[in-house]
Every structure is written in structure tokens, then in C-alpha cells.
Design brief:
By secondary structure, this protein is of the alpha+beta class. The protein has three helices and five strands, in the order βαβααβββ. Helix content is about 25%, strand content about 25%. The protein is globular.
Amino acid sequence: MERVLLPAALARLFPGAPRQVDLEATSVAQAIAGLEARWPGMADRICDSTPAIRRHLRIFVDGEPATLHAPLRPGAEMLVMTAMSGG
């Protein structure tokens, strides 16, 4: 099982969605599809229509920046983070 960690702002939009989800996936895109299957509409909050990860979010797999096509090894941890900006 792979572990997906969601930001509080995203989890709050989906009643019953925990901040930590265990699911089976071999890629970031497949993990997002698994989230969508459990909480319809979540994929639209993570990805845009191109599809690509929305510009205000970042995804990390085992601490490394990842794209939708990034693989997930068994037991991987995928972190969805809101992007930070400053000036």
C-alpha cells in the first residue's frame, strides 16, 4: 500500500476524507485516480484540464518533487502540498 498525505485545505472540502490515505497505485496519476474514486471531484482539485498538477499545488514522492507520471514504489509516500509564495 502507498500512503497519500493531503493538505488540510483539500481534505476539508471532502467530508469524511482523512489527511492520510492508504491505497494501491503504481504512479502519481493512478493515486489521484484512486482518490477520485473515493471522493468524486478530488482529482479536479489536484489536476487541471490539460491534465497537469494545478500550479498552486506541489506533489512529492518520498521527499522528491514529482509529476503525474512519476512512479510509486511499493510503500511509497506521496505528499500533496499547497505551494508557498512570498515576495
